[in-house]
Amino acid sequence: MNKNAFRQLSYGVYVVSTWDKGRATGCTANSVMQITSDPATIAVSINHDNYTNQCIRDTGRFAVSILGEHSNPGIIGAFGFKSGRDNNKFDEVKSEVRSYLPIVSDACAYLVCELIDKMETSTHTVFLGKVLDADVLKKDDPMTYAYYHNVIKGKSPKNAPTYIAEEQPVQQSTPAAKYACSVCGYVYEGEVPFEELPDDYVCPICGQPKSVFVKK
Amino acid sequence: MNKNAFRQLSYGVYVVSTWDKGRATGCTANSVMQITSDPATIAVSINHDNYTNQCIRDTGRFAVSILGEHSNPGIIGAFGFKSGRDNNKFDEVKSEVRSYLPIVSDACAYLVCELIDKMETSTHTVFLGKVLDADVLKKDDPMTYAYYHNVIKGKSPKNAPTYIAEEQPVQQSTPAAKYACSVCGYVYEGEVPFEELPDDYVCPICGQPKSVFVKK
To answer: What CATH code is carried by the domain that includes residue A20?
Structure first.
């Protein structure tokens, strides 16, 4: 089996959010798709290990914030690569409440859902949600997973269904050494040589310090 | 609820295929996503009214051909907008058998799956398939649903989850009258005025004759 075939499936980049006993929480996700049109339902796949999975079961509600190409890529870092169990992820981004659910303000659209069914797999739950409310927040092209990979140069966390263990870095046309964030995979390509960046430089995706960057 | 928010979800363009008592059949689909990575599983959503839905139940196997931007857009017409019950859709496209399942040769990649679970909704079945085989067929960017809409200018058939009844045609920057295929929505934008096209002109997407085109 050639696992590269899986990379040809197209996805968006989303924040799936809900409440954890009155505290907003959520995680990044790629696997969201509309299932029926009337009534409108969507399916969302969330890893069992993601704290958000349990919170969706507890509340029976979830929201999907659809990130756009112009959404701050730091949102992906704020909601990915760390657990909502120990982090107040919503503290790091501008948010608001729509139809009683927390959403990310810098998304291009959102959907608020009531959980109506679920399908279990070995590592993920596919949640089926009836859409109670939806709106467009700003005019933007939705961020695709390909855009995140190819333009922002991020990679998948290990609990994403799209994670491929032998994932290879994107080939660069220039032979110069690059520095990559060892947490989220972001590749620094600024004009200032990486070594000359200030000590308080942090990864624009996941917010980790300069020290976690490794030479590629 | 603003249904335009649903259009910000990202999808690819796929042909989901299987056998119908020894005859290859299939349908177009947008809703395919990977669920687990090891073992690799994918979820595919298919309308109850699609003949392929029953055939997948009967055989317990299905394949997904992932269309690329350079795949012939006529494939979308061959597999959409008409039923596999009455049409030998695979007669119209070059195909081959991989791991005992029919696939579209002009796709950029394929996945062959064993049906392991399903979730029912009011109009669609979400099939969960364990991937038995997968490969890349050619180097191409996968065709996204946005590309299909914005570049090829196709629209959704009525039994697609992404269908929106009040769907508006893509705004054109030029005020000249356009002709659109009333079956699949393809908008003719060639340099030769539509009226001057030969009588045997057919829609490049769905293959319908010139007579089904309507002035917009």
So the answer is: 2.30.110.10
Give the residue from B16, B41, B111, B127 showing the smallest Cα distance to A1. Answer: B111
Test the A interface: residue of B34, B46, B110, B156 with most A CBs within 10 Å: B34
The partner residue sitting opposite B33, judged by closest CB among A11, A109, A133, is A11
Residues B62, B68: Cα–Cα separation, whole Å? 19
Which residues, in sequence order, are CB contacts of A165 under 8 Å at separation 6+? Answer: none
Residue-wise burial string across A95-130, b where 16 or more C-beta atoms lie within 10 A, e elsewhere: beebbebbbbebbbbbbbbebebbbebebbbbbbbb
Distances A135 to A75, A83, B150 between C-alpha atoms, Å: 19, 28, 21
pLDDT digits (tens, 9 = 90+) for B166-192: 444 333 344 457 888 887 788 888 888
Two tokens at A24? Answer: 């907003």
For residue B15, the cross-strand partners are B28, B65
Query: What letter does residue B28 receive in the DSSP assignment?
Result: E
Indicate the average pLDDT of chain B.
87
Q: Give the residues across from A157 on adjacent strands.
A: none
Distance in angstroms (rounded) separating the CA atoms of residues A95 and A97: 7
Per-residue tens of pLDDT for chain A, all 216 residues: 999 999 999 999 999 999 998 899 999 999 999 999 889 999 999 999 999 999 999 999 999 999 999 999 889 989 987 788 888 899 989 999 999 999 999 999 999 999 999 999 999 999 999 999 999 999 999 999 888 888 877 666 667 777 665 444 333 344 457 888 887 788 888 888 888 888 888 888 777 888 989 988
Sort out which chain A residues have CB atoms less than 8 A from B128's CB and list them.
119, 121, 126
Instruction: State the best of B2, B3, B7, B10 to mutate against chain A, taking most chain A CBs within 10 Å.
Output: B10
Estimate to the nearest angstrom the gap between the alpha carbon of A13 and the chain centroid. Answer: 5
Cα dihedral: B185, B183, B146, A170 (round 10): -130
Same domain, B135 and B35: yes
Q: Chain A residue with minimal CA distance to B141?
A: A8
Q: Please count the structural domains in chain B.
A: 2
Helix (H, G, I), strand (E, B) or coil at A113: strand
Same domain membership, residue A105 and residue A32: yes
Identity at A196, one-letter amino acid code: E
Tell me which residue in B4, B5, B135 faces A5 most closely, judged by beta carbons: B135
A209, β-bridge pairs: A202
Domain that holds residue A210: 168-216
In a domain, B116, yes or no: yes
The closest CB to that of B32, out of A2, A9, A145, belongs to A9
